[in-house]
Amino acid sequence: MTITITTAPCCWGVDDLGNPNLPPWRLVLSEAAAAGYGGLELGPHGYMPLDAEVVSGELRNRGLYVVAGTIFDNLVDPANLENLKDQTRRICAVITALPRPPLSPGQRFAAPYLTVMDWGHEARDYAAGHSDRAGRLGDAAWAGMVATIRSIACIARDEYGVRAVIHPHAGGHIEFADEIERIVRDIPADEAGLCLDTGHTLYAGMDPVAMLDRYWDRLDYLHFKDIDAARYAEVMARRIRFFDACAEGVMCPIGDGCIDYPAILALLDRRDYAGFITVEQERDPLNAGGSLADVRKSRRYLETVGFARTEETTR
Predict the structure, then answer these.
(1) What is the C-alpha to C-alpha distance for residues 307 and 87, in angstroms, rounded to an integer?
(2) 188-to-116, 153, 258 alpha-carbon distances in Å
(3) What sequence ranges are listed for the domain Xylose isomerase-like TIM barrel (predicted)?
(4) Which of 161, 212, 293, 303 is most buried, judged by most C-beta within 10 A?
């Protein structure tokens, strides 16, 4: 089992590009490197410049690479399709021109990946974590979303050689167990894999270990988070948007929460996982002053419980 631990700008509160308090992207790179990570995700479309020469220079100066780009947008509205195709091409063009991540023996698909997440629906945002409250898409809307994801995935694969991975996300239309089962059934494995996130999985009422095991054959990439159990119970008793719950501290450094990472390690060891795991901890960017300490703490905890390290950053 060879695992490479990376991180993501959301640990610095970078999710909503409209938020005026986002930290400078160069600071995120510097702190990711200072915390001991060899790589990180690009972040939401438009956060880092879509200029491969500029970003490559900053990455090389810090010994970093980019493990994935991100589509985090409305996948349901047909009027958004051309925008999504354009984002896909812009993101894939950049990430494939940046310093390359390492390739581990047994890794299914080479990085960088394109994580694909549905977002932008107020009713679902307020129902995040509550399967019983969350309205499901009708058949026609679901079929439209599936067609959009397949279009994105095929552009990434056929034009850029990038593997698209579907990321179930709290507050989107792919969140709960029935939706994950349906999306895996409706999108062929040769077009897209899965990126399961331990935090989103638990937030949505599922067991992360069981879900990782169940969808192992489609699992190409992983996100790790941890959840403060007391804060989670408190926010789940209220009507609250997902990122507002994150701003209140529902996500915490890995090892400080309730997710059983030794059990996850045992599963990954048994299944012989090879590839990338990205540490995430959504937060309010006004609290990004604590990000360096938190991502460092998460990494150290994972090392302590036995997750392997890959420090190679030379491509």
Answers:
(1) 34
(2) 15, 10, 34
(3) 30-302
(4) 212
Tell me which residue of 105, 68, 39, 98 sits closest to 313, measured CA to CA.
Answer: 39
Instruction: Please work out, in degrees rounded to the nearest 5, the angle formed at the alpha carbon of residue 71 by the alpha carbons of 165 and 170.
Output: 80
Nearest to 145 by CA among 73, 90, 215: 73
CB atoms within 10 A of CB 30: 16
Q: Is 31 exposed, middle or buried (0-12, 13-18, 19+ CB in 10 A)?
A: buried
Q: How far apart are CA 8 and CA 5, in angstroms?
A: 11
- Does residue 4 sit in helix, strand or coil? strand
Per-residue pLDDT of the chain (315 residues; tens, 9 = 90+): 689 999 999 999 999 999 999 999 999 999 999 999 999 999 999 999 999 999 999 999 999 999 999 999 999 999 999 999 999 999 999 999 999 999 989 999 999 999 999 999 999 999 999 999 999 999 999 999 999 999 999 999 999 999 999 999 999 999 999 999 999 999 999 999 999 999 999 999 999 999 999 999 999 999 999 999 999 999 999 999 999 999 999 999 999 999 999 999 999 999 999 999 999 999 999 999 999 999 999 999 999 999 865 443 332
Total-model pTM? 0.95
Closest residue by Cα to residue 162 from 256, 257, 94, 62: 94
Omega before 101 within 30 of 0, i.e. cis: no
Just give the CATH number of 2-305: 3.20.20.150
Q: With residue 242 as reference, give the H or E element that holds it.
A: helix 242-247
Give the start-to-end residue ranges of the domains of the chain: 2-305
